[in-house]
Design a protein that fits this description.
Helix content: 10-25%
Oligomer: single chain
Shape: elongated
Largest sheet: 5 strands, antiparallel
Number of strands: 7
Radius of gyration: 29 Å
Number of helices: 3
Amino acid sequence: MFHFSEEDGIKLFNPIPRVAYFYGFAIIAIAIYLAWSVYGNRPQQPSAGFVHTKPAVSSPKITGPNLTAPLKVVPKTAVKGKFPDAHIDDPDEEVIDTADIEPAPNGATTITTMNIQTGESRTELKMKEAPWFALERQNYLGLGYELHFNGEQMGKVYYKRDLLRIKDAHLQAETVIRFPVNGSQNKVEGFVGVNTEWRFY
């Protein structure tokens, strides 16, 4: 038969330490971030080819004015010559404009308009502002070389990952392994850390 003292009862029913709540919250937050990173919407890769883009303005289309001049189009043969995988084979569709969008750090929005008197079309481009807050998942894997002021030389292998951003300030985690080269007296070492970067153009 077991006997429990009052002191034993206090030990059995001690409340969960506050630090356990912190670690539990951290584990749940990391799990949610990793799930978003793996299953969330990802940036389009070049290998995807031409895909339909999301509209910048979410509004149903309405019947527009009639043209008073023939519609000026971009010849499909010219487009196919440069982009053989473009989806423009439908005989009921014409290419009215093309645009070459330069790399945009925060994305861009394009609007294609057409002059109904002349039949000419044009595309306007606007760069997007940096978001106030956004989760990120850009990865970096690389090799590096360090020449220290005391003459020591070190090589390194590193992995970095962007975690989140506030405007142009980015929080980044990193793992680095450094090793001596060229007779350096240093030893192999490794570390993990976080960086905060302000990125600008």
